[in-house]
Amino acid sequence: MSSGGALAEDELLDALVQVAFHVTGVLSRIGAENDLSLTQLRVFGILRDRRPRVTELATHLGLDKSTISGLIDRAEKRGFLARARSADDRRAVEVFLTPAGRELTTRIYTEVRRELDPMMNVLSADQRARLHELLLLIGLDHHADD
Amino acid sequence: MSSGGALAEDELLDALVQVAFHVTGVLSRIGAENDLSLTQLRVFGILRDRRPRVTELATHLGLDKSTISGLIDRAEKRGFLARARSADDRRAVEVFLTPAGRELTTRIYTEVRRELDPMMNVLSADQRARLHELLLLIGLDHHADD
DNA sequence: TATTGTTATACTCTATAACTATA
DNA sequence: TATAGTTATAGAGTATAACAATA
Question: Tens digits of per-residue pLDDT, A120-146?
Fold first, then answer.
């Protein structure tokens, strides 16, 4: 499909995959330094400005609710997040950051920026703007959050 | 750092992280459909054109050699890869794909391309070329492979 | 009956520590 | 002594199945 350039297409894809591995690698490493998995890091990121239910988190991350349940257990034991029964639906459980969890999240995301900035700074302001534009285009349908 | 545009920088970073999650998510899902973890997928990808030692794999992926050892065990039991004592250094073990493993790897990477292509195809040929260029720039120092 | 969340179970991933064999 | 790899162990991540409470 798309005449003339299957090889170039593959190279573009390889470059994208490589950058993706680099980015998630940095996230994983910084998470690990704080005893958090990549998934926990994502959950914490989501909880910065939301108070989702267990099932919402599971759907959003593409994981089973039992997986999220266990993950919350462990983070709750460490005092980083908490549960609250929903007022609307007594079956549902809302998850949110504790003050300690919020502090940790802020610290970690600051660190992430500091680590990934050098990668961005090889680009000029113009190039960064263009990259941003292109990333938004290819990212349009995967509901932009977390 | 870098006058005028800290907010825009953050948005660029967010877009990059989001695309990274999308890409690794697709890889994870396709891996899972074939009972392979993301790490195993990466190992298989490396083995397409190399015959590394256990320690080389571990270093490359930032994991402990014992982790790689177990991962090889499981894939070996399933007939996808094999070990061979090195002729140069009798302590070392080389890892390589079996024919079945090579077939599986080809099939999976074809599938990966098919799944990620739609994302690319929202861009014009020109835009794809520009994105490729920019990705290569920011990916320059993270030794380009796997 | 269907949905929300938890628990029990099992397997993989991961690191640390102790070990064997080779250098 | 140092290095390559394996094994034992333990904890976290993950999914499936069975369950209790609520809708």
Answer: 999 999 999 999 999 999 987 654 344
Which pairs count as long-range contacts for B93-101, CB under 8 Å and 24+ apart, including other chains? Answer: B93/B53, B93/B54, B94/B51, B94/B52, B94/B53, B95/B43, B95/B47, B95/B51, B95/B52, B95/B53, B95/B54, B95/B57, B96/B47, B96/B51, B97/B44, B97/B47, B97/B48, B101/B44, B101/B47, B101/B75
pLDDT at site B27: 96
Q: Strand D closer than 7 Å to the CB of A92?
A: no
Judge: B146–A21 Cβ closer than 8 Å, yes or no: yes
Testing the interface with B: which of A27, A37, A106, A131 to mutate, by most B Cβ within 10 A? A131
Q: Verify whether the Cβ–Cβ distance B132 to A62 is below 8 Å.
A: no
- Which of B79, B73, B70 minimizes the C-alpha distance to B97? B79
* The amino acid at B105: T
Residue the block writes with tokens 């108070």? A51
Give pLDDT tens digits for B103-119: 999 999 999 999 999 99
Shortest CA–C1' contact from B53: which nucleotide? D4
Q: Which residue gives the smallest C-alpha to C1' distance to C14?
A: B67
